Amino acid sequence: MTIADVKKSTDQRMHKSIETLKADLAKVRTGRAHVGMLDHIMVDYYGNPTQLTQVANVTLVDARTLGVQPWEKKMVSVVEKAIRDADLGLNPSTQGDLIRVPTPALTEERRKEMVKLVKSEAEDAKIAIRNIRRDANENFKKLLKDKDCSEDDERRAQDDIQKLTDKFVAEIDKLVVDKEKEVLTV
């Protein structure tokens, strides 16, 4: 493994951490309905846990209401139960074979809880980024120990990884500020 390989691998792992954070932040509920709210819900489909989006069509009825239409009529009650049990504070109601999922307005207290959740997710992402930096630095030290690079190269590589870390931490901070603004907007 060379310094370039370590840098490339570190960059890829940090990008994956950012993508994971974006996915986690998308699950955090804001005052508006969006089809991604139900992406992580699992439904019992013939004994197998299956994603809701694999057994039903999720659409936006209006700004505060989602429509969930299972592809099989007998899945309506199973899907409705899965949404109710998902602990999202949603109370679906069935109208024929369409499940309407109104999203209640968030209270000020609930909004503050959501902001805390967003900050917690961001802190987890920052920890992941720092752990990736630590792994890269350990790889550089190993390369130096094995005499595969010079001390100057190792020092420069560590500086580059630190700049990369700073860039990704700044990106996390930006994502958090944007999500906070979205959550606190009434």
From TrEMBL:
Transmembrane segments: none
Alphabetized InterPro entries for the sequence: Ribosome_recyc_fac (IPR002661), Ribosome_recyc_fac_dom (IPR023584), RRF_sf (IPR036191)
Pfam families given in the database record: RRF
Every Ribosome recycling factor domain range: 21-184
Keyword Cell membrane attributed: no
Keywords, sorted A to Z: Coiled coil, Cytoplasm, Protein biosynthesis
Main localisation: cytoplasm
UniProt subcellular location: Cytoplasm
Domain of life where this protein originates: Bacteria
UniProt entry tagged with the keyword Cytoplasm: yes
Residues in coiled coil: 115-167
Similarity comment: family membership: Belongs to the RRF family.
NCBIfam families reported for this sequence: frr (TIGR00496)
Function noted in UniProt: Responsible for the release of ribosomes from messenger RNA at the termination of protein biosynthesis. May increase the efficiency of translation by recycling ribosomes from one round of translation to another.
Official protein name in the record: Ribosome-recycling factor
Lineage, broadest ranks: Bacteria, Pseudomonadati, Pseudomonadota, Betaproteobacteria, Burkholderiales
